[in-house]
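Milestone M4 deliverable, item 7.
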Amino acid sequence: MDPLEIMKSQKSYCSNHTDMPVHLQENAKALCWEYNQTAPWEKEKRGEILKKLFGTCHPLTFIEPSFRCDYGFNIHTHGLTVINYNCVILDTSPVSIGANAFIAPGVCIACSGHSVDPAQRGMGVGTLAPITIEDNVWIGANATVCAGVTIGEGSVIGAGSVVTRDIPSGVVAAGNPCRVLRPISEKDRLEVLKF
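Output delivered:
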């Protein structure tokens, strides 16, 4: 099976298979390196690099270096996307990031995994599944989002959480494993000062 077909299949695979093309990652590594060398004022250059790196890149996609990903072409932003410092996206499967997504420093979004069986893991057997972050989601600092997860529209993931299963829309969720703490309500609206 072609490596790109494997990425779409969500089936186990062997990463030491001789047909796994290294060149698919080389492009992403080079573009991430280039992106991470840009100066803070080089916003246009950053935008051009992200257009080359991502499968779909909304013009309002802003990422603070340092940023790393596996392939890039599996990452899709669909509106304002703010990704803060030191984030990693292991995009062995598609990662869809909705509009008005705020991803805090140190977040890891990981579509890939390894076999739990030690013998298979030693042979390079891995797993993969897509991740969907719906519109208006905020993921707190140092959270990890695991393979196959969907985070529902408008939800907040607390700092340091490990998201191992789907989170519904409109909730605050936190912990390891991440679980729903409460719905978001009118009490969460802040009084905003005007200048």
